[in-house]
Amino acid sequence: MIDNYSELAMPIDLINEHEKNIIGKHEDLSNIDTPKFYVKDKNGMDYVEEGFMRSILNKHYPIWNWEIVKYEILGDKWIVVHGKLTIVDEGVPRYYDAIASHRIQRSKKTGDYVDIGNDMKSANSDAFKVALNRLCNIADDVYRKRVEDITLTETQIKEIENILSNVKDKTIVSKVTAGIGNMSINKNNFDGTIRKLKTLIKE
Question: What is the assigned CATH class of domain 5-136?
């Protein structure tokens, strides 16, 4: 989220340039594959080591701040942390609030707390990593936040349009044109679309 963006005294063309740079930077980060060495498994769920995510943050967003807004202990079972990550993104301050919880560990023999400090640090690290992923797109591949670009290229669109020029059925032409517009025809089914259109022409 951009904080006080409207208050920045910048010409509209400079604002547009900042927005373009920010969008491009986040797309690039989202498309970076996380090295397998830093991807761990816990109870069948993949996660990324906090140290690695922090190193990416330092590299791409060297001006940042992590603030613990609130710690909360729910009964004697869970610790909940509400944290706020603030970064300077292409000169623009942006922030994200994240909440995470961690189960309090107790001794099976005595029932006493094992290490409440470690439990609090774990909850804090989890909240921090959520913010890093959501705000900075770090490790989008692991946390399944990467959005695949299925948009047709200009070359693909022209190829479809060239074939459509030989299709006499106007209903089919309209349907395909609408499919390009609403992305129901996309990179994933482009080859199949081409084959179907060529079959129609032969018939």
Answer: alpha beta
